Amino acid sequence: MSLTEEYTLHRLLGECCNLFGREEKEAETALLQRLDQINTALHKNIRETFGNLSSELIVKFAEVAVEVPSRRHYSQTIIKLFFQRFKDPTQFYIRALLVKAQLVAYEGHNKEKKGEELVEVLKEAIGYISKALDIIAGPAEVAPVKGKDSKGDPSAGSSNKQRYGFLIYNASNCLYKIVRFMLRQNWQRNFSDIVERVYKLM
Q1: Rounded distance, CA 142 to CA 155, Å?
Q2: For 91-107, what is the mean pLDDT?
Q3: What is the pTM of this model?
Q4: How far, in Å, CA of 48 to CA of 43, rounded?
Q5: 10, 19, 61, 177: which has the highest count of C-beta atoms within 10 A?
Q6: Are 59 and 82 spatial neighbours (Cβ–Cβ below 8 Å)?
Q7: Which residues contact 68 (CB under 8 A, 6 or more apart)?
């Protein structure tokens, strides 16, 4: 995929974001059309196309699609492919973990799980949020420097929070979407640890 094609997909994603929240039927139709157009372009030659895509484009598409119930399966597919290709703990890896958390939670609701069964599904979803927080709060990677005896340059800071702290808000918003229906007596105790962890990081 050329830079021009990727730029076009970024533009379409921007248009999708502008169409969110609008109540007109035309806006909803336009949103779905653009998501379909992006998905078709991504799967035209999935091996070649996906190999040339930036992690930013992939994750942004997943973030948009996960918010649209009828197109949520696009997000499911693209996130699965993302984790097969990308392993480095970048901001987009963190954001992908948050998308995965939402997908797991939505799947539990779609299967109409209730009570303890739903709690277990939501705990699985929260596990992905915890992984994201582990990266955010974890030690920063040491930047290598040249020299036979060099051990790296820790000058970038001792914690990833300096780089990815802004994603704590994303994590808190994701967590709220997942557990808000369970924040009631007898159920909220299952999620108190993760809520407290997010609160302490903010």
Answers
A1: 8
A2: 95
A3: 0.84
A4: 9
A5: 61
A6: yes
A7: 31, 32, 35
Question: How do residues 145-168 score in pLDDT, each as one tens digit?
Answer: 444 333 344 444 457 888 888 999
Task: Indicate the residue type of 17.
Answer: C
Q: What is the 3-state secondary structure (H, E, C) of 96-113?
A: HHHHHHHHHHHHHHHCCC
| Among candidate residues 95, 92, 127, 133, the one with its CA nearest the CA of residue 108 | 127
A 10 A CB-CB count for 117 gives 12
Tokens, residue 21 = 């929240």
Residue 143 pairs in a beta bridge with 153
Cα–Cα distance, 105 to 176 (Å, whole number): 12
Q: What is the mean pLDDT of the chain?
A: 83
Query: CA dihedral defined by 12, 96, 100, 191, rounded to 10 degrees?
Result: -120
153 has which bridge partners? 143
Query: Crossing angle, helix 115-137 and helix 167-179, to 10 degrees?
Result: 180
Q: Residue 151 burial (CB < 10 Å; 0-12/13-18/19+)? A: exposed
Beta strands in 83-200 (DSSP E): none
What is the number of helices (H) and of strands (E) in the chain? 10, 0
Length of the chain, in residues: 202
User: How many C-beta atoms lie closer than 10 Å to residue 133's C-beta?
Assistant: 24
Q: Which of 73, 71, 75 is nearest to 29 (CA)?
A: 71
